[in-house]
Amino acid sequence: MTILRKLQSQATKEEKGQWQTKSASDGEDGIWKIHIWIRTALFFQLTKILLLLSGAVTVRRGRPAVLQCGVDPGDTLLSVTWKIHLRNTSCIISFKIEEDNTKTSDSYCTTRMRSDNLSLEISNTEISDEGKYNCEVVNDKDTFTRDTSLQVLAQPMTFLKLNSDGCPECGAIGGNPPAEISWIPHSDEINTIQLEESNQTWTVISTISRKRINGNSVTCLVSHPTFANPWKGEITLSGK
Fold first, then answer.
1. Whether pTM exceeds 0.70
2. Does residue 215 sit in the same domain as residue 160?
3. Rg (CA), the chain
4. CATH number of the domain within which 111 lies
């Protein structure tokens, strides 16, 4: 995810340099709109590919998640241990097959997490469940380990308005990960801030200076993994 953010940041800087020297004519606005859509589509496709290659599991907040060990211990399974490393805490869930074939288990995690043989089930997922999950499987010959990461998605609420200074302000509230906001036409005077809330969601607010806007309206595009397509809002500038 860090690689993708660096690539996107670099692309944004390159785009800004390219478009600062151009006027905001209707033809150029159309090209910029196509550029935004292509960039957004490529970004989220790359995100999905990297998550797949890394063995990551993605789930919507509030829905159940199932993580697999992904190994076959054969008929001589002795124990399974999940070592879970979250943002603010760590815990362990394990079970062991005793000599008389009885199963004993221990859990020091939330009751929403339950180990079922080679899988870990999490009910009613929360953003606080995000982290690294290490599965250790032991049989009579060897020990196998596998790391899996969990990402919990939260869909943001969006808005577009004129702020107290009369400038267009676009926002995405309560999302995870942070939403990406773009403007059409583009401007070199855009201020975007990200705020992490107490519930570990993100608020993103982007403001564009009306002084550098040619025309009577602007369009805001909000992109997020929970959106099938970017959210789009258009607002008319008063007094122009």
1. yes
2. yes
3. 23
4. 2.60.40.10
